[in-house]
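Quick start: what a row looks like.
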Amino acid sequence: MLQALDLPMLATDLSDHLVRKGVPFREAHHVAGAVVKLAEDRQCTLDQLSLQDLQSTHPLFDENAASSGAGGMWDYEAAVERRQTEGGTSRAAVGKQIALLKTWLQE
């Protein structure tokens, strides 16, 4: 399954990073697209872009946006765990959904 993962899948995380800094989602989504295009134009992967590269598309990108280590922007598992809202993909959110469904099925 890991082989099917592709870094552009995490472009939404770039948008979310900017939204958490106060950038309207519409603008942040456009910026994420510009980052993907930049990587495509340079024929590199998203995690090979430097902080300077990211900041050339938007000044509010910081070192967290360029992090490829454990828990960083380009860590697939961390990306899943960042989605902790109701109905999200984090382990806790999925566990809560499973518990609700089990209760519903028993009724």
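That is the whole record. The chain is about 55% helix and 0% strand. The CA atoms of residues 7 and 69 lie 14 Å apart.
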